[in-house]
Amino acid sequence: MFFKQLPTKEASLSYLFGCGTLGKAIAVDVVAGDEGWFEAQAQQQGVTISHVIETHVHADHYSGGRVLAERMGSKYCLHENAEVAFPFEKLHDGDVIEAGNVFVKVLHTPGHTMDSITLAVSDNRRSVEPWFLITGDTLFVGSIGRPDLAGREKAMAAMLFDSLHNKILNFPDMVEIYPAHQAGSVCGAGISGKPVSTLGFEKRFNPMLSVNDKDKFVEMLTETIPPRPVEMDKIVLANTCA
Question: Which DSSP string do the residues of 5-58 spell out, in sequence order?
Answer without folding.
Answer: EEE-GGGBEEEEEEETTTTEEEEESPBTT-HHHHHHHHHHHT-EEEEEE-SS--
